[in-house]
Protein 1
Amino acid sequence: MTLTSQKLPTTRLWTVDEYHRMVKAGILGPDERVELIAGEVISMAAKNPPHVLVGKLASAYLEELLKGIALVRTQDPIHLDVHSEPEPDISVVIPPPRRYAERHPEPEDVYLIIEVSDATLQYDLTIKAKAYARALIQDYWAVDVNERKVYIYRKPISGDYVQKDVFSDLSSIHLLAFPEIEVLFKGFFP
């Protein structure tokens, strides 16, 4: 038997529906911190105090900036596709909240996704970024807690972002969805 005629092992990818059934059946406990990315159930890293603080500061700042025009969600699922349902630290979506009574937001509902990174920066800039790019999320940010930087990824094409910029905590940027609104990154950091 030649190598080409042998059946090579494959990875079993989970769908979002199967993932939800695992939760309902108790296979994944309600307190387990996991998310589904590209068909794989991924354990989420523990949140250190600086991660928690930056997440809360950024979320509160964005809620203030976007009051009445967008909904800011924290640690809530986004249904990207049949194999991915991450729980980003912050997502900015189309309001009102009742819009999501029967479903999680989907890519067409999303204005911005933010991951707060301390121990997971490389993962957030690669695996997570590719998942968001494949779903055509137009504005993806990773906030580096340790270096006080914000990575801005835009223009998703062929499963990756073609525009990648890095800003310091003293910089600012305008939101893609709301170009009249300027975000000062110092509002994200203590």
Protein 2
Amino acid sequence: MEKTLIVFKPDAVQRGIIGEIMTRFERAGFKIIAAKMLQPSREHYHQHYEGIGTLKTRKGEEIFEGQLATMADGPVIAMVLEGVDAIDTVRKMVGSTEPKSALPGTIRGDYAHVSYGAASATGRGVANIIHASAEPKEAEKEIDLWFSDSELYDYPAVHEKFTQPR
């Protein structure tokens, strides 16, 4: 089974839409194997967005600093989801990084609308509800950054109990 990290960003927490979005992942058949609320340090976000995601390298200092400012707005909820092709499927469910471009039916298409231009005009990162790992090596590094091994749970889902012999 593949694992992926998702982080409900401060705008999702502040709007009170975490439960609705978690339900979408559960209905798609993903198993939640880790979850916690926290307010990471600037250093943690630097490691996440530059050390792993190379945001500053790819997009520049201004976008990087705007993203860190946006993430500092409040607590986040980090989760690890597990399932078949979890990374690609979750990314499809989440939608385009720019909410304005996200298709209806995706999480960002249904819950956000801000454009890159509007975010840049305020010197902030785009409020796009959620982060989801982009590829397997990134997911592995992100999960290691956000969770210790003891925080990841291995348990059978109800339906798995009836498909495997004792």
Protein 3
Amino acid sequence: MAVIQIFQQGRSEDQKRAVYRELADGLQERCDISPTDLIVSIVSNGRQDWSFGLGRAQFLEGDL
């Protein structure tokens, strides 16, 4: 079983469907993981939802 969580901003439903398919196909081909043993969760968020330490919001402050 493989569980993959993706954080993203602004992807369309078609783009999400494509990544589900590509992950299932790629993991089956390269890692012998059955597509029935794959769970993918996409979490939508914005730049304001990230801090990479130091008590700061680096995306909002222009550091990233």
